[in-house]
């Protein structure tokens, strides 16, 4: 039987809803903050994890991730939040463009070139690159949590899905509409001897999720 002290859990939390009424693909752009509902989602995650024995906190540097972390960290004043660039949103050449139903950048022929190869993908950071940086960030968070500890990382949709896909042996190429990474969701990785042994998923803010808009979700990883 494996000793419980060898087990480390790393929870990847996707940030809450962002205030983005114009449908901009914000990617890594600054000054995109949580909406009122997004802040409520963050509070819900904090409540859901309040009794968890978290020993390490880590977050993407983007505002929406930091704001999601805030109520979680407030319950753990003895823990310092480590800002980690490796868990940031995926780079995307289309960021700053509008993808709302009424003014979609997909109508612009100049955008089509960036969509030519979904296997890489041609519009942004390579999937394998995302996996590599997330893998090392998860490993470092596990080391920081210590034997028997738990770490919590606030990150973004695509990086979380890439980490999970790699851990579960899925193909990295995928339909973005099928990602199981809802806003304020928690994807948990159980590590034993430094290797991911199990993955679980939870949606503590499921009742707060907005209606899906599939036309925008194709490129807006958030």
From TrEMBL:
GO terms for molecular function: phosphatase activity. InterPro entries: His_Pase_superF_clade-1, His_PPase_superfam, PGM_Phosphatase. SMART domains: PGAM. CDD domains: HP_PGM_like. It comes from the Bacteria. This is Broad specificity phosphatase PhoE. It holds the Pfam family His_Phos_1. GO terms for cellular component: cytoplasm. PANTHER family: BROAD-SPECIFICITY PHOSPHATASE YOR283W-RELATED, PHOSPHOGLYCERATE MUTASE.
């Amino acid at each position: 039987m494996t000793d419980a002290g060898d087990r480390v859990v790393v929870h990847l939390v996707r940030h809450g809803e962002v205030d983005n009424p114009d449908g901009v693909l914000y990617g890594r752009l600054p000054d995109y903050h949580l909406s009122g509902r997004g802040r409520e989602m963050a509070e819900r995650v904090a409540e859901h994890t309040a009794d968890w024995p978290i020993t390490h906190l880590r977050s993407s540097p983007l505002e929406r991730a930091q704001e999601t972390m805030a109520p979680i960290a407030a319950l753990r004043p003895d823990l310092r939040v480590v800002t980690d660039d490796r868990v940031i949103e995926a780079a995307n050449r289309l960021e700053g463009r509008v993808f709302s139903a009424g003014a979609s950048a997909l109508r612009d022929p100049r955008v089509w070139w960036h969509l030519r190869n979904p296997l890489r993908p041609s519009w942004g950071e390579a999937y394998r690159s995302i996996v590599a940086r997330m893998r090392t960030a998860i490993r470092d968070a596990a080391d920081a949590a210590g034997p028997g500890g738990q770490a919590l990382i606030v990150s973004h949709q695509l990086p979380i899905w890439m980490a999970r896909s790699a851990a579960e042996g899925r193909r990295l190429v995928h339909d973005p509409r099928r990602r199981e990474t809802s806003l304020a969701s928690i994807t948990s990785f159980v590590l034993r001897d430094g290797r991911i042994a199990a993955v679980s998923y939870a949606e503590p803010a499921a009742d707060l999720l907005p209606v899906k808009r599939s036309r925008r979700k194709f490129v807006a990883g958030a």
